[in-house]
Amino acid sequence: MIRRLSKEDIDQVSRIEKENFSSPWTRDQFIRCHNQSLIFSNYVYCKSSKIIGYLVAENIIDEVHMHKIAVEKKYQNNKVGLKLINCMLYDSKVNSKLKICLEVDASNSPALNLYNKLGFLAVGKRKKYYGSRDAILMDMDIN
Ligand SMILES: CC(C)(COP(=O)(O)OP(=O)(O)OC[C@H]1O[C@@H](n2cnc3c(N)ncnc32)[C@H](O)[C@@H]1OP(=O)(O)O)[C@@H](O)C(=O)NCCC(=O)NCCS
After folding, report:
1. The CATH number of domain 2-141, selected from 3.40.630.30, 3.40.50.1360, 2.40.30.110, 3.30.499.10
2. What is the pTM of this model?
3. What lines the ligand 1 site, CB under 6 Å?
4. pLDDT tens digits, one per residue of 22-49
5. Is 48 left (phi over 0), alpha (psi -120 to 50) or beta?
6. Closest residue (by CA) to atom 4 of ligand 1?
7. Which member of 56, 74, 124, 139 has the greatest number of CB atoms within 10 A?
8. Angle 75-99-58 (CA atoms, 0-180°, nearest 5)?
């Protein structure tokens, strides 16, 4: 089941964040996103009462900037990431947004495959954005 992030979820989300990223967001960063619920669309994917994935996106006028997506390692490759993005896409269309934007480490093949599969297009590159690695900027037009 996918639902909106609540404050009580943030410990579980932070645990998944630390498991997946070498420079993880802090608990406070997630709290700030949660507290700005008019600007941010934050989702969690629950298996029973356990959170196994999350997505954080920021609504900027008619664009949605996806800042974070991660799935607990042992549940990866089960379409959790795909479903989280589809949920964000659905809400973005309902809210008449025009574009979804994101950036991804050029060496992150699982994420790149996922975004390509969903129809995101590479529109730019930030050289050496992640230390020695480039960031790929991707967009998807909706509506
Ligand atoms: C990227 C991530 C969110 C994908 O979520 P997921 O639930 O594991 O992926 P899904 O099962 O929804 O996969 C959907 C598609 O993504 C691609 N994909 C996912 N995992 C993959 C892998 N390990 N290798 C190659 N392609 C992969 C495939 O195209 C897959 O479609 P398919 O199953 O029909 O081949 C997940 O791997 C993750 O949390 N990674 C660590 C955090 C991260 O890198 N976040 C993105 C930062 S930009």
Report:
1. 3.40.630.30
2. 0.97
3. 20, 69-71, 76-82, 104, 108-111, 113-114, 117
4. 999 999 999 999 999 899 999 999 999 8
5. left
6. 81
7. 56
8. 60
